[in-house]
Amino acid sequence: MLDTPPITRRSVLGLAVAGGALLATGATAASAPLNQINAAASGVDPGLCDRAFAALSRHRRAIWANDVVAIADFGSSSAAPRLHLIDLVRGETTTLLVAHGLGSDPLDSGFLQAFSNQYGSNATSEGAFVTAERYTGMHGLSRRLNGLDPTNSNARARDVVIHAASYVSKDKIASAGKIGRSNGCFAVAECDIAQVLARLGRGRLLYAGRSGTSTI
Is residue 123 one of the residues assigned to a domain? Predict the structure, then answer.
């Protein structure tokens, strides 16, 4: 089999728009104007965005739905919206609050200090995840995640999932200057969980990284 040539961010965006449009609406790629494609990731750190789209290319066999891509930028304070839901069909981005793990911020500074893939770390893991099945657990409706990189390969076994939490809210920020910490899960606000679970259905990319770095 011939090697597949590298896919650039622009070409991945174009492929994602085409595939996402077909999956979501049956429309053709022509229905997404070029300016929408270029603006799809507006407000997302360019370096982190490039790494996420490289992951989308690298793991394209596992990620079979590419209409929406999620990027969690843990280079920002937890008081700032930093979970970017990038709609590659509509060419727009929605940004929401998301918690990092207490093991990644042991002093509760509001900033992620380090990633970890270790069992019992209660830390956030870096890298590409593919969204898996939805289920109802102790936090209500949630979605499981499978790690695709060596840096997050234990995600499934560690029960790293997307779920809602009361400690992720504007009221928490107003009182504490930051949101609470999870046990390594991508915890979002209770008012946002329905949107996140619906838009990040099975087979989509969730990329966790930190702006200002140059890792995977």
Answer: yes
